[in-house]
Design a protein that fits this description.
The protein is an alpha/beta fold. It has one domain: 3-Layer(aba) Sandwich (Rossmann fold). Helix content is 45%, strand content 16%. The protein contains eight helices and seven strands; from the N terminus they run E-H-E-E-H-E-H-E-H-H-E-H-H-H-E. Helix 2 packs parallel to helix 3 and helix 3 packs parallel to helix 5.
């Protein structure tokens, strides 16, 4: 069954989103990604969309539906950061991060839910972060937007859980990406000292959890927060 399912990954042109899209392709799904610029990985359909624009989201969904079929799995991954301490954080620093990370999820999932309700099947997977529940100095806007996804998934589960639709949150910790590679070696050592696993994750370790949640084995899991953080955020 899974081979026929259509997946949309927002922000699937780089980082964790790209790895998630690649993993779905490898597992035989039909995969589309949204990107503001750049292209998704080989084997995916790339559609242009800014998640802060509801009309653009609607057009992107319509294009995917026409070319691949109804979207049954949505991975809300698109996100931005504008890190700075609270006292220096501007209104725009706060509003733009919330509008993309939380508002973008709202727009994408609202549009996706229409098709899922018709199909009486859906998988909503929201990509949060360890800092959503653990906290992080300089990231009040980002961590607030990411912790909000937990309430979002749980409320969605109560609304749509009886229709064959699940909604779950994946909370990655430190992942080996271009961003972490640029950190000074001492900083990397310091971060790794706080992680029981003693290392950063590969993006594919996050992608594997996401594809598992999308599959039949996770049909009875909803409203869950699954950390992929090497034990960093335990108990949060």
């Amino acid at each position: 069954m899974s081979e026929q399912r259509v997946v949309l990954v927002t922000g699937g042109n780089r980082g964790i989103g790209r790895s998630i899209a690649e993993r779905f392709v490898r597992e035989g799904y039909r995969v589309a990604v949204t990107a503001r610029s750049g292209e998704g990985p080989d084997g995916t359909l790339t559609v242009r969309a800014d998640v802060t624009d509801a009309a653009a989201i609607d057009a992107a969904f319509t294009e995917v539906e026409e070319k691949l079929g109804p979207i049954e799995i949505v991975v809300a991954n698109a996100g931005i950061t504008k890190d700075t301490l609270l006292l220096r954080m501007s209104e725009d620093d706060f509003d733009s991060v919330i509008a993309t990370n939380l508002g973008g999820t709202f727009r994408v999932v609202k549009r996706a839910s229409k098709g899922m309700l018709r199909a009486r099947f859906g998988r909503v997977i929201l990509i949060s972060s360890v800092v959503g529940l653990y906290g992080s100095a300089g990231q009040i806007n980002y961590s607030a937007s990411k912790s909000a996804l937990v309430g979002f998934a749980r409320s969605l589960t109560r609304e749509l859980g009886s229709r064959g639709i699940t909604a779950n949150v994946v909370a990655p910790g430190f992942i080996e990406t271009d961003m972490t590679a640029e950190l000074p070696e001492d900083t990397q050592k310091q971060y790794k000292a706080n992680i029981p696993a003693g290392r950063f994750a590969s993006p594919d370790e996050v992608a594997g959890v996401v594809t598992w949640l999308a599959g039949d084995d996770a049909a009875y899991i909803s409203g869950a927060v699954i950390p992929v953080d090497g034990g960093l955020g335990m108990g949060h």
